[in-house]
Amino acid sequence: MDIFKTHILAFISLSIFIVSCGTPDPNKDATGNDELELLEVDPSIITKNMAYKDMIYVPIYSDIYLDELNQKSLLSATLSIRNTSFKDSIFISTIDYYNTSGDKVKTFINNTISLPPMATVNYVIEKKDDTGGSGANFIIELSANSSKVKPLIQAIMIGENGNQAFSFATDGYSIR
What we know:
Blueprint: H1 2-20, E1 52-59, E2 63-65, E3 72-74, E4 76-82, E5 90-98, E6 104-107, E7 113-115, E8 120-125, E9 137-144, E10 152-161, E11 164-171, E12 173-174
Antiparallel strand pairs: 1-9, 1-12, 2-3, 4-8, 4-10, 5-6, 5-7, 5-9, 10-11
């Protein structure tokens, strides 16, 4: 009977271990916090007379067609917002994700976040998330106290087909 109990306890322990070893969310830190929420600031610090205001369009591809049979390959995409200033923070008020049809799929932030000098914030659209489609895009609204800031906003897509992997990048474009 003791061997039976030992096997049951070992099975339960192994089951708990397997369930707890799921794929971690790439958009959360080691303690499970959303990295964007950790950068939230009081929106009252954003004023109408900010020296820099912009709206950036960033195309991404959550899938691409591989051949003449229109077979799709799903891609993971990383949105990267980089503050290239050595002294000025950038305030990001919108990060919205749209699908091929132009419908908003997701809003990534509910409150303004502050991106400190030389900092980067990334957000991952996982490979299994095909809600965006081949014409997906992000709209990012940002501002800063200095007109000299020059953020760098890109998307990096990664995928594979059989034993071959591929990656490519797209740049964000001002649409304001």
